[in-house]
Amino acid sequence: MSLWGAFLSVLFPLRCTACGLSGTPLCRGCLDQVPKMPETNNPLITALYSYRHPSIKKTLWALKYRNNTTTAEIFGNALYEHLLERAHEFTAFSSASQNDKPTVIPIPLHKRRLRTRGFNQSEKIVAALKLLDTNESFLYADDILVKIKETAPQASLKNKQERSQNIRGCFTVRNAEKIKNKVVIVVDDITTTGATLNEALGALKNAGASAVYGIAIAH
Ligand SMILES: [Zn+2]
After folding, report:
1. CATH number of the domain enclosing 139
2. Cβ-Cβ contacts under 8 Å for 62 (sequence gap 6 or more)
C-alpha cells in the first residue's frame, strides 16, 4: 500500500457497505448478493455488475483511487468464476484450436498516465485473477496491447460519438504473433458506451486474433 493509501485507511477505514466487515467497501460474501448483469449493447462486451449499484460504484472507486488490493482480489475472483463459466463459449465460435487457451489482457493505460497514477486498476484485477488461476486455464500477457495515444478521460465527454472519436487509434498491438489465431479477452474496470473496449478489440482483431471479447467489472 502506498503512503497515501495507508494515510487514507487510517483516516477513512474501508468497511463493507452491506455487512460492515473492514478492509474493503464490499466483501466477497456481499458481492455474491449483487445481481449479475451479463448484457451490454455490444454482443462482444460483457459486464459483471451494474455501475448503478451503490456498493459496486464505491468498491470500484476504492480500487481506482485507493489502490485497494482486497478489492482487486474480490473482483479478480468474480471475474475468474465468470471466465470459467464461459470457457467453452470463448473457443467455440472461433477458428482457434479447442486446445488453445484464451489470453487475458488488461486495458492498458498510457505510460504517462501510468506514471502519474502509479498503477493500472485493470491490471490489478487481472493480476489477482492470474494468482487464482492455479490450473492455468488462461494465458496472460502484458506486452501485447499498448496505449500509444493519450486521451481525454471518457467520462469528460458527453456523447457516444465524441467518446469513440477520442479513443480512435489509441491502441497498438505489439508481439502480434502471440495472439495470432488465438482467442483474446480484454478486461476493463468500467465500460460505459463500450468505446474503449471496442477500440481495443478492433486493434487485436486487426492484428490477427481469431476471436475477441471484452469484459468489464461494471457497466
Ligand atoms: Zn459484506
Report:
1. 3.40.50
2. 14, 24, 25, 68, 71
